[in-house]
Amino acid sequence: MAIFLTDQSKVIVQGMTGSEGTKHTGRMLKSGTNIVGGVNPKKAGTKVEIEGVSLPVFATVAEAMEATGADVSVIFVPPKFAKDAVIEAIDAGIDLAVVITEGIPVHDSAYFWAHAVAKGEGPVTPGAPRTPRTRIIGPNCPGLISPGKSNAGIIPADITGPGKIGLVSKSGTLTYQMMYELRDIGFSSAVGIGGDPIIGTTHIDALEAFEQDPETELIVMIGEIGGDAEERAAAYIKDNVTKPVVGYVAGFTAPEGKTMGHAGAIVSGSAGTAQAKKEALEAAGVKVGKTPSETAALARELFQAGN
């Protein structure tokens, strides 16, 4: 099993003909992803050969979906055009939009997230939750991989294989490290949700999906300083997650008031510190490592104890 992305997923790439889009389309194809086309209005009607596969280029996401049955779009579009690209995918009704682009203005991310919610399902009364029709992962993320099935984004596919661990992470590089360190066990899915202040899919969304996935036996959650996402995830775990969870929070040595790498990683006073997040997670029964390697060791220990 896997969450969000399976071997049945049909993937298109918005920005496929750009340098990054072409490079990572090739890597996704090599890892077995079923890529069925790309989107670039200026090159619509042409075909591009990548890794020996001839891929059609469409003018719009809607046209690509109609012609191919695509249900996932990976977005490699420059920041100033990214908002329009995501809105186009939402309006076309794509199931999953994976926004890789870094440096999208927060206002733009807020706009396309609000648009996804407005197009969603559920009550429209103020304050009531609505489920977006399109699941957004990112922006500023490495994407997600269900090893042996499909890979949507820039996560290296050769560092791990399929297995029983679910991974959700704000950090791309820590995603890769955790996948490598636990490669002997393997992963059901690994989801890089991104580190911007406003993102689509959250830790809680992934935790809920992993809890429901019968093949996921243990969950690893990687957070970082800034905001309160990890504290909210801790409260969710305490009330809703029955599977063992291991956590890591990056940024114990970060100076106060300084943005660290990700736009959302900024500490203000005692709010958003690594220590506060660690304490919240431990209070919810999550084992938290002091380093990524210690976190991997805790996960392996817990997994072996349950098998």
From TrEMBL:
<dbReference type="InterPro" id="IPR005811">
    <property type="entry name" value="SUCC_ACL_C"/>
</dbReference>
<keyword id="KW-0816">Tricarboxylic acid cycle</keyword>
<feature type="binding site">
    <location>
        <begin position="17"/>
        <end position="20"/>
    </location>
    <ligand>
        <name>CoA</name>
    </ligand>
</feature>
<protein>
    <recommendedName>
        <fullName>Succinate--CoA ligase [ADP-forming] subunit alpha</fullName>
        <ecNumber>6.2.1.5</ecNumber>
    </recommendedName>
</protein>
<dbReference type="Pfam" id="PF02629">
    <property type="entry name" value="CoA_binding"/>
</dbReference>
<dbReference type="InterPro" id="IPR033847">
    <property type="entry name" value="Citrt_syn/SCS-alpha_CS"/>
</dbReference>
<dbReference type="InterPro" id="IPR017440">
    <property type="entry name" value="Cit_synth/succinyl-CoA_lig_AS"/>
</dbReference>
<comment type="function">
    <text>Succinyl-CoA synthetase functions in the citric acid cycle (TCA), coupling the hydrolysis of succinyl-CoA to the synthesis of either ATP or GTP and thus represents the only step of substrate-level phosphorylation in the TCA. The alpha subunit of the enzyme binds the substrates coenzyme A and phosphate, while succinate binding and nucleotide specificity is provided by the beta subunit.</text>
</comment>
<dbReference type="GO" id="GO:0004775">
    <property type="term" value="F:succinate-CoA ligase (ADP-forming) activity"/>
</dbReference>
<comment type="pathway">
    <text>Carbohydrate metabolism; tricarboxylic acid cycle; succinate from succinyl-CoA (ligase route): step 1/1.</text>
</comment>
<dbReference type="InterPro" id="IPR005810">
    <property type="entry name" value="CoA_lig_alpha"/>
</dbReference>
<dbReference type="InterPro" id="IPR036291">
    <property type="entry name" value="NAD(P)-bd_dom_sf"/>
</dbReference>
<keyword id="KW-0436">Ligase</keyword>
<comment type="subunit">
    <text>Heterotetramer of two alpha and two beta subunits.</text>
</comment>
<comment type="similarity">
    <text>Belongs to the succinate/malate CoA ligase alpha subunit family.</text>
</comment>
<keyword id="KW-0547">Nucleotide-binding</keyword>
<feature type="binding site">
    <location>
        <position position="176"/>
    </location>
    <ligand>
        <name>substrate</name>
    </ligand>
</feature>
<feature type="domain" description="CoA-binding">
    <location>
        <begin position="5"/>
        <end position="104"/>
    </location>
</feature>
<feature type="binding site">
    <location>
        <begin position="100"/>
        <end position="102"/>
    </location>
    <ligand>
        <name>CoA</name>
    </ligand>
</feature>
<dbReference type="InterPro" id="IPR003781">
    <property type="entry name" value="CoA-bd"/>
</dbReference>
<feature type="binding site">
    <location>
        <position position="43"/>
    </location>
    <ligand>
        <name>CoA</name>
    </ligand>
</feature>
<dbReference type="InterPro" id="IPR016102">
    <property type="entry name" value="Succinyl-CoA_synth-like"/>
</dbReference>
<dbReference type="Pfam" id="PF00549">
    <property type="entry name" value="Ligase_CoA"/>
</dbReference>
<feature type="active site" description="Tele-phosphohistidine intermediate">
    <location>
        <position position="262"/>
    </location>
</feature>
